[in-house]
Write the structure tokens for this entry.
Amino acid sequence: MADPTTTSVTFPTGATDGEATVLGTYVLPRGAGVVVDSTPFHPLDHTWPDQPGDTGTLVAGGVAYEVVDCVTGAIGPEGEFAAGAAIPVRRGDEAWRWLVVHLVDGEPPAPGRTVGLHVDRDRRAALSAAHTGCHLMALALNEALAGRWRKEVRVDGLGHPDFDGTAVQVSRIDAGTATDRYRIGRTLRRRFDTEGLREALPGLAFQVNERLAGWLARDAPVRIDAPGPDLTARRQWVCELPERTVRIPCGGTHLRRLGELTSLTVELMLSDDGSELVAVTTPQRS
Ligand SMILES: [Zn+2]
């Protein structure tokens, strides 16, 4: 078997199709894992698993293989292979090589074969919309909550205290919505005023939605900046908002312009004990 090096990825530019050479195959609990030299498929990140892996098809010699999921794989210093949650180190650890693993059913195409790679475009577009929406919501939420900070805290790309970056515990993107869960624990409460937060939620959601609608109306361009083609390159989401161009570290896929959405709205909920704020962001595509 060829010794796979880090997979090159083309999804940051928005690509959904490609051609590549199979470098290796692995037996995994959920099927066969196919590794190629270059791919448009976005894999689930094992360290910050926000955007799910792409699905689609892989075509070799006229035979189509359904790609049922796509995960991150890694090969350690001793040549050991691990995938997804079984990877024992953090994303990008330099002693490991980082791979995109396409999960297929049945006998996978052999190493050395040329394969066509085709991502399910509709699902990708829906995930990209939700992911762009998730970043915008975070910026608008930071602004809406800015007056509640009692102490200096790091600021976001628009200069507002970064509630999202400080309190987010889990971010999950799916084909319809993005769900962000924020922990409002004792440490945060020392710096962040939660007085009347529950009663304020409808007003905060209104304020966030107004800001989101304003940004959509300006049709701001969105792109991913990448220092290189490697899966683990430190990529950034860049959005040219009217106020300022904003950058957020991000490994996912995105829209090209905010005008691709007809609406973007958030729903804010506070848990009964007040320790968790949940934001559900819903994009509508044109
Ligand atoms: Zn992101």
